[in-house]
Amino acid sequence: MLDFVEAHLAEDLSLEALASCAGIHPSHVWRAFRANLGTSPHRYVVSQRLERARHLLEHTADPLAEVALRVGFSSQSHLAAAFKKDCGMTPVQYRREFFRA
Fold first, then answer.
1. What averages of pLDDT result for each successive group of 10 residues across the chain (101 residues)?
2. How many whole angstroms from its chain centre is CA 2?
3. C-beta of residue 54 within 8 angstroms of C-beta of residue 62
4. For position 101, what pLDDT does the model report?
5. What are the contacts of 6-12 at 24+ separation with CB within 8 A?
6. Is 15 helix (H, G, I), strand (E, B) or coil?
7. Whole-number pLDDT of residue 98
8. Would the pTM of this model clear 0.90, i.e. be above it?
9. N or C, which terminus of the chain has less Cβ within 10 Å?
């Protein structure tokens, strides 16, 4: 399932989608993530999306709206809110800090 998440970040990664890919019931997906990773499937997916967004911000000059869609956020503002909550700064601030360093 982790490889599936990584390969399909821009797509629907609901419990049902993950369960379908693994051929198991959605409740088993939740329990498997909790037992093996110590987190929920949703939190894991968001963390992977944010990690990919950081990589794109560091290595491309793509517009933020494009970065957001490429990593599976519904909009630039959705990415910005999640990014700020996780990193303590906006994607624009992060990109500036990265290129200044």
1. 95 94 93 95 97 96 97 97 97 90 60
2. 12
3. no
4. 60
5. 6/48, 9/45, 9/48, 9/49, 9/52, 9/70, 9/71, 9/72, 10/69, 10/70, 10/71, 10/72, 11/72
6. helix
7. 85
8. yes
9. C
Amino acid of residue 97: E
C-beta contacts of 35-43 below 8 A and 24+ residues apart: 41/13, 41/15
The pLDDT value recorded for residue 55 is 96
Residue with tokens 């519904």: 74
Alpha-carbon gap, residue 2 to 55, rounded angstroms: 18
Q: Which of 72, 1, 84 is nearest to 37 (CA)?
A: 1
Amino acid in the structure at residue 10: A
